[in-house]
Write a structure and sequence with these properties.
With about 140 residues, the protein is α+β, with helices and mostly antiparallel strands. Helix content is about 20%, strand content about 45%. The strands form 2 sheets. A 5-stranded antiparallel β-sheet has the order 5-1-2-3-9, with helices on one face. It has a 4-stranded antiparallel β-sheet with strand order 4-8-7-6. A hairpin with a 4-residue loop joins β1 and β2. The longest helix has 12 residues. The chain starts with 8 loop residues before the first helix and ends with a strand. The mean pLDDT is about 90.
Length: about 140
């Protein structure tokens, strides 16, 4: 069952930061992000980005999410594959903005994720970084 316990906002961000680290390969994206945005931190925040595209393959219960953000004259893309997905809510249009992303690990070991006003909430067993890149705009 999908469940995110909305309580203290600071604790939710800390839990999200902890859970993001379980995404296989995310360290590569963090290094890339730090280089592009000229930062030196290990968090992943998709707030103010867009859900650019999604693909759901029901037989495999696999959901792929492509997120697009902007920095200076670049569009930055990251694609993440989620596996053993149980969709709670999906009412999404292309280029849907994400105000905040929260992830919480449930007692059964699965993760619940909400893309806030991105209108995409689901549970997953594990996730893997698919790819990332930038384009000049």
């Amino acid at each position: 069952m999908f469940k995110i316990e909305w309580n203290d906002l600071q604790k939710m961000h800390e839990e999200t930061d902890r859970c993001v680290k379980y995404i296989s390969g995310i360290g590569e994206y963090i290094s890339f992000k730090n280089e592009i945005y000229h930062t030196k931190n290990d968090d992943v925040c998709f707030g103010d980005n867009q859900i650019d595209a999604i693909s759901f393959f029901p037989p495999e219960k696999k959901l792929t999410v492509r997120i697009k953000g902007y920095y200076n004259n670049h569009a930055c893309f990251v694609v993440i594959d989620f596996f053993d997905v149980e969709i709670q809510y999906m009412d999404i249009a292309p280029e849907h903005y994400i105000d905040d992303m929260f992830i919480q690990q449930n007692s059964d070991g699965k993760f619940s994720i909400s893309f806030g006003s991105g209108e995409l909430d689901f549970r997953y067993a594990y996730a893997k970084l698919n790819r990332f890149w930038t384009e000049n705009i």
